[in-house]
Amino acid sequence: MHGILSRLGRVRAIRRFTVRNVLPETLAPLDRLAQNLRWSWHTPTRELFASLDPQLWTRVHGDPVALLGSLSPKRLEQLGADRSLVAEVQRLDEDLRTYLTEPRWYQQELTDPDKPDAIAYFSAEYGITAALPQYSGGLGILAGDHLKSASDLGVPIIGVGLLYGAGYFKQSLTRDGWQHETYPLLDPDNLPLHLLRERDGSNAPARITLPLPGGRSLHAQIWVAQVGRVPLLMLDSNIAENDDSARRVTDRLYGGSADHRLRQELLLGMGGVKAVRAYSRITGAPAPQVYHCNEGHAGFLSVERIRELVQGEGLSFEAALEAVKAGTVFTTHTPVPAGISRYGTDLVSEYFGGSAAIEGVPLEKVLALGAEDFEGGNPAVYNMAIMGLRTARRANGVAKLHGKVSRGMFHQLWPGFDVSEVPITSITNGVHGPTWVDPEFAALVESRLSPEQRASGEGFLLAPEEGGLSDDELWRTRRTLRAKLVTEARRRVRKSWLDRGASPAELGWTDDVLDPDVLTIGFARRVPTYKRLTLMLSDPERLTRLLTDPERPIQIVVAGKSHPDDEQGVGLIQKLVQFADGIGVRERIVFLPNYDIAMAQHLMPGCDVWLNNPLRPLEASGTSGMKCALNGALNLSILDGWWDEWYDGRNGWAIPTADGVQDQAERDRLEASALYELLEDTVVPRFYDRDADGVPRHWMEMVRHTLATLGPKVQATRMVREYVTTLYTPVARSSRALAGAADHEGARQLAEWKARVRAGWPAVRVDHVETDGVADVVNVGDQIRVTAYVDLGDLRPEDVQVQAVGGRVEDDDSLTELQVYPLEHVASYEGGRHAFAGARVLDATGPFGYTVRVVPDSPLLAAPSELGLAASAGH
Ligand SMILES: *Cc1c(COP(=O)(O)O)cnc(C)c1O
């Protein structure tokens, strides 16, 4: 015995097996139901799994794969003989099959012939279900909701990401409230994933390979998570072919050195494209016409696609860039510099230069894509957001205000243009309703309102006699959701204290934490400084009075993880935890460790008020408040992100901001004080203002208004439709146009044209401008005629557009509310000089001014701003 053990001890690679349960034949479809993540938003499927063994279901945290793996063979045999269960399994299997194959919105209603055959969506993180922890926060959850909604709409997306061996960290607390991180390893064999395998008879796992510096290689295998109709390809470098350091590339999310993160991003972007190719080759799935780069992490996808075209189709780098760009959408998600991936150019050079150089893709051209080569930029930095913008045909921010902030932030890339003309649009984020609406609330609503009444939101405004829900009913359900949260919070607080080293005997008080009838405020999010976790503690006495008011108390549930390297964030958590530990308030304010999807699904429906107090305008969108709104909770937030756009005075409250105040501490103090005031004077009185039946009528009016008006807007299906119609379809069109009938003719032409225009541009100028019909004062309705004499050097009139740019003159002589009028070419003179003219009728009063400029123009461009070049009168 001893001999065998010591021999085993010397075996270096232990061969590991996962012993899977074999399902009785009658229950075989359960495997399919568990493997398709649609169960995560399909309540009947989850109920089916729960019914197999309700206690076990709780123990495995609602994870069907784990449940099936843990049922005893005897129990399985019993279940397999249960006729009604078998019938339900078959019914749901059939339902899934229908969901996966029937024509949906994309097939039935979207008639645009240019819609893409396939879209590849790249993201560094995905939050789909708590059972697949591959996300750190909002970016990942948004990506997960994007895929789910795309599936519901039938949009042919392929997701691309990494499979992190330990996901993001698990958070617990030390006795004194310091964040403690652990990284439990995931076992892919026990996750709802399958390996992409060759179908050549070998059945070998498909492999992709990237070159590394020093002649080394990085190999990865590809796991597929099936998200309804959408496959999500997840690259995994933890395989035997790799050396130790290459194996660790996908070890965890956002961990490690810059070098480590750069390798992850190379694998995600370049490896991701290779994975898409492998997937198409093996399954016959169509090649994408559109590549959506969700935040900058995946930006290297463009380099790989350029490489394909240069090496495979003989395009020049420049023509390949045009072809790639024509099919790319880039979404920026943060105005916070720390949120943008940036690398030293030295480091990037190691991966694209020297022995790692890619034939036909010279280092300096790769570097140019991410260079901060503009005023205020850092020449030693490679910026993935800048790269994303330079390699995309269309770009967007994630809320109206964020679009505006992004246009300001990236204005340097389009120096000849006004900020308002920077080609970054916005699509406001949304959330996946079936994931985020509490099943009990959904059941009530679905039992009473038709799909149309729910979709339009109007059903929530119907009186009971019109078939709608009564205030009482809605209020009772809101209380049920609050009570579920209270139960969950008690369980979590108790567990947290046990983890913190308390003995059960000390923890009797945790049974009394929170109260199902007290106004409940939620605050949960990642903890970067700008989100101001501790703003509510600005005046601890005032907060304590609110929490402990004998008649009308409030209670607060707080959660959030801090990035482990962010000492300041970890410190904020400790400050909050130490306050919440205080005898006297600890029953009214709790910090729940390890914020994740499972917690969010209890927290957001159970709150009455969702608090958000970021430093405006640093919150790009925010989505947690949307999840609350779908459940009838009211938002109390700084006017930032989506709330700036959709707050309407009746769906919640806006915390006034002290935008102009430079002193940070003073600004925090002012905004905190405004928050307390709102709570004391408005929110609390309204919640406790009850009629004879105990219902807060005014409150319920706001709840109904929120459900009716925000409900339809905050849906991710609305968001995905917007992506499809305003970004994916136009990009598919330009991608096809530049690909041409063959040979990428359009891309070659565009690259040559751009080179010619760039070379000729220094000679372009506006010589002089003549105006008829302008006196100091003109009347509305008068016409003015502008003639511009321009020098185009070697360029032709059709290479440019000459524009009169009119607008309101501000005190500093700048123009706002710009309107652009193209002028017609009317005459050519010798030496490259031309006249352009046009007339317009003045239709607005007030100080009006205009200027004339020349911009490049070609039908192949996304917009005349694309090159960032403009020559203006007087310059
Ligand atoms: C929704 C959600 C987020 C993102 O919320 P924000 O409002 O964008 O901060 C983060 N984490 C989890 C677990 C979520 O459910």
UniProtKB/TrEMBL annotation:
InterPro entries: Agluc_phsphrylas, Glyco_trans_35, Glycogen/Maltodextrin_Phosph, Glycogen_phosphorylase_DUF3417, Pyridoxal_P_attach_site
Necessary cofactors: pyridoxal 5'-phosphate
Protein keywords: Allosteric enzyme, Carbohydrate metabolism, Glycosyltransferase, Pyridoxal phosphate, Transferase
Pfam families: DUF3417, Phosphorylase
Catalytic reaction list: [(1->4)-alpha-D-glucosyl](n) + phosphate = [(1->4)-alpha-D-glucosyl](n-1) + alpha-D-glucose 1-phosphate
Transmembrane portions of the chain: none
Annotated DUF3417 domain residues: 23-132
EC identifiers of the protein: 2.4.1.1
Recorded family membership: Belongs to the glycogen phosphorylase family.
Known function: Phosphorylase is an important allosteric enzyme in carbohydrate metabolism. Enzymes from different sources differ in their regulatory mechanisms and in their natural substrates. However, all known phosphorylases share catalytic and structural properties.
Descriptive protein name: glycogen phosphorylase
Species for this entry: Georgenia daeguensis
